[in-house]
């Protein structure tokens, strides 16, 4: 059941993104920022944590999950460090995912054989 919940929740989030791309004039960059911001707002309201517990990776892997991770990191860091945590918490919480994306992107660039599109 855990895999099923991850599949349908993640699929619903991705389907929402596809509908926004197809039916609106929003650019993909604006949609991405909207998803991250929605994750932050839902995390701040305490609504995204239960969804992440229910759906697992289906809720944490999409961009809304990245926004939620940032908001959780800031919340915890502010509790521990005070005002300075508002600036460091999000960076700390998102560091592992960001580092993995940079490393894997670099690895893909080394292994790929670029060529002209023509």
From TrEMBL:
Cytoplasm found in the keyword field: no
Pfam family, one: SpoVAC_SpoVAEB
Residue intervals passing through the bilayer: 6-21, 33-51, 91-112
Keyword terms, alphabetized: Membrane, Transmembrane, Transmembrane helix
Full protein name: Stage V sporulation protein AE
The organism of origin for this protein: Candidatus Acutalibacter pullistercoris
Lineage: Bacteria, Bacillati, Bacillota, Clostridia, Eubacteriales
